[in-house]
Amino acid sequence: MTQNINQPAETTAAEGAPETGAAPDQTNDSALVAQLEAEKADIKDKLLRTLAEMENLRRRTEKEVADARAYAISSFARDVLSVSDNIRRALETIPADQRASEGPLKAFADGIDLTDRELVKTLARHGVKEISPLGEKFDPNLHQAMFELPDASVPNGTVLQVVQTGFSIGGRVLRPALVGVSKGGPKAAPLLDDDTPII
Question: Which pTM does this prediction carry?
Fold first, then answer.
């Protein structure tokens, strides 16, 4: 009988030992879980930031590649424009009556004219567009005013003469048009965004 009495006492002591040992283990487990949760949140934050940075890098690279395609020939096109200007000046030096009459000078002038048109077409195929603003309202973003012409019959600030044609590439001005602007006429009517006058 003494054995039976002692046995439950040992069992009770044995059962009591794990209970006192379980409290420190739960504390360690809770601390470990909290530490792992913090690490998980940190890693998730770093991952999301890295993904966002990679997406921004991808977009930035796409834009740079698109700009490089659109504007790669800018300096070359700017240099070729002087050739086009010289061709046009050569045409302007031939008197109109000699260009109209049949003969070798007319054929020569027609050849120069065809060469100029082909050059402008080639530039247009590569995104270089002409800015020919005759009769339009002066726009300082596209035009460079060289002089003012007194003319009361047209609104003030209208382009009356184009000294040198301008060119743009991909929406950017490659070379502004050199123009003569009207002075002294009535003020131009203000325009809406779609270029219709406000009445």
Answer: 0.60
